[in-house]
Amino acid sequence: MARKAKTEGADSAENAGRLKQIALTYKMTRRTDSKIGLIVAGVGLVTLGVLLGIGFAIGHPVYLGILGFVLAVLAMAIVFGRRAERAAFGQMEGQPGAAAAVLDRIGRGWTVTPAVAMNRSQDVVHRAVGKAGIVLVAEGNPNRVKALLASEKKKMARIVVDVPVHDIIVGNGEGQVPLKKVRTKMLKLPRVLAGPQVTGTNDRLRAMGDLMSNMPLPKGPMPKGMRMPRGGKMR
């Protein structure tokens, strides 16, 4: 009995935490998408209404009503998730460190090291290692980040010579990848490395070290006023 009560208590706490997270996501999304509540509710009502209409037409309003309710909740969740994601990218876009926040959510199979190269203008290069090889994701001024990317590639060439290296410059200009499409772009890269090769590559790169190894870095977008210390090593 005690174990059952403990399990039920844990489930209740988990559900409460999930509802709190949904409410917080809704509030954040509503700041940039004021109509999200009406749109999500409208999608649910239309879905339920269509299924109920079909149910009355074929003489099974109860069955179709239950199915309509389930599908309405599913449709509302999908629409809410997509609009919340779009709003989140809109709020992050243009902020230093936004790409690091996206990489942090890329999922399993990738090892992400934020800010392996940076300059005083807050142009940054992040590194991700997975079965597609090494992906360098740069954000900042397109002309300046090209120099950072070249420098990072040259340094890695001494350590990993048999691993493909891809580079992505975040932005909306020609040859750049919009922030919201970075994850999709990376997941579409061909997988050419086996698990042990990925582990070995990570070990070699970790031994090489990185710019931020001795400097604490907050998760997500970096504060706009953040600057490299004057004594810090630059690339």
Structural description of this entry:
The relative contact order is 0.11. It contains seven helices and four strands, in the order ααααβββαβαα. A hairpin with a 5-residue loop joins β1 and β2. 54% of the residues lie in helices and 12% in strands. The protein has a four-stranded mixed beta sheet with strand order 1-2-3-4. With 235 residues, it is of the alpha+beta class.
Compute the CA-based radius of gyration: 23 Å
Number of strands: 4
Which stretches are poorly predicted, pLDDT < 50 over at least 5 residues?
A: 211-219, 223-235
Q: How would you spell out the order of helices and strands?
A: HHHHEEEHEHH
What's the quaternary structure here? single chain
Strands in their spatial order, largest beta sheet? 1-2-3-4
Number of helices: 7
Structural class: alpha+beta
